[in-house]
Amino acid sequence: MDIKAITYKRRVVPLMACAFFALCCVAAFAVIAVCGKCGHERLDDAVVCGHCGASFPAATKYADPGGEEPKESAGAPVLANQPAVDHHLESAIISMELKLTEKYLAENMGALAELFCKNAMALNLLTLENAGTRSERILHLLKRSNASYASSAIREARAAMARSRKAYELLQKARRYVPVGNTWLPVHDEAKLSMKQRVLLRRAQAAPCGTCLGFGKVVCSKCKGTGRVECPNGCKKGWVQIEAMDGLNGKARMKEVRCPTCLGYSRVNCGECLGGGAIVCETCKGLGERAQCSECGGEGMSACRRCNGSGLYKEGKCTYCGGKGQILCRECKGDGKKVNK
After folding, report:
1. pLDDT per residue over 174-220, tens digit each?
2. CA distance 266 to 136
C-alpha cells in the first residue's frame, strides 16, 4: 500500500473528524446564549445572569429586517409559573410530625425527636387552623427533646445528632416527603408552594453554624473535651514528696504525701473550659447560627435584576420574576444566612 495513503488515513482523517466535531459544537452553542460562568441559558437582553449573578458582556445589536424589536424569550423563568395564591397545609401534617416527636422521645431518641419537632415548627408557618395554640405544644416538645441529649458532653451530643440526621432523612424519604431547604413536606404539597412560602421554610430551618453545628460550643482544644488536665503541681499519680524532720533523730528525710493541688486524683479541672469540656464557638459567638446574608438582609429574596424590582419590563410584565419584582437571593439561596465557608 502507498505510504502517502497510509499517512493520510492516520493523520489527516482524524484531524478532519475533530474539526467537523468542533464546528458542530460551535453551531449548537450559537443557537442558545449561555452564561460563561454557570452555563445556564441567558435570557433576551439580560445584563446579568439570573442564576449566578455574573455580568454579561455587552452584545452587539443588529437591525431587524422587519423593523420590529425581538420578542421576549418563551422560556419560563424561575418565578413565572408560581401560584398566585399561597397554598396552606392541612393541620394533620403537623400533628403527625408531633406524634413522631413524642414517639422518639419515649424511645429515648432525643436528637431524632428534635428534628421532627423543628420540622413541625417550620410547617406550622403554612397553616391557618390553630397555628397559635399548636405553637405552645411545639415549644414544649422542643425543650424536652433538646434536654434529653444536649446535657451530655459536646462530643457525644454532636455524634448523636449526626446519626439522627441520617436516620431522619431516610424516614422522611420513606414517607414520600421532599425537602425545601431543611424542611420536609409531602411531595404533592411541595409542588403547590409559592416562592415566598419556599423562602419562609428555608429561613425557618436555615443550616446552622458550620463550626459548632448549631450547639454554640466546640470541643475544648486544651483538654480534648474531657474537662480535665494533668495536675500542674507535677505529682506522680496524686502523690508528691516533701522534706520532713524525723522526730527521733532530728534529721530531715523525704516523705510522700497526697498532692494538695489535685487531692490525689492526679488531674484537675481544665482552666480553659472550667471542666465542661467545651468552649463558646468563636464563629457564631455561641448563637449556633450563621451570620445574616448581606445581599438580601436576611429576607431570602432580593430585587429582580432585570426589572429592578418594579415587576415591569418593556411595557409589560417581567418574565424573569413573574411580575413580582423579587427573585430568590443568589447569595444565600433563600435561607437569609451567609454561606458556610
Report:
1. 999 999 999 999 999 998 998 889 999 999 999 999 888 888 999 99
2. 48
Q: Do 137 and 98 form a contact (C-beta atoms < 8 A)?
A: yes
- What's the rounded Cα separation, in Å, for the pair 101 and 114? 7
Distance, in Å, from the CA atom of 77 to the CA atom of 108, rounded to the nearest integer, reads 47
Q: Which amino acid is at 323?
A: G
pTM of the prediction? 0.66
Reduced to 3 states, what is the DSSP secondary structure of residue 241? Answer: strand
Grid coordinates of 232:
500542674
Q: Provide the residue type at 148 as one letter.
A: S
Cβ neighbours of residue 138 closer than 8 Å, sequence gap 6 or more = 98, 117, 120, 121, 124
H/E element holding 29? helix 13-31
CA-to-CA dists, residue 289 to 148, 270, 337, angstroms: 21, 27, 8
Q: Please choose, from the candidates 223, 219, 242, 243, the residue with its C-alpha nearest in 3D space to the C-alpha of residue 231.
A: 223
Contact 223, 238 (CB under 8 A): no
Q: Are strands 278-280 and 239-245 parallel, antiparallel or unpaired?
A: unpaired
What 8-state DSSP symbol labels residue 69? P
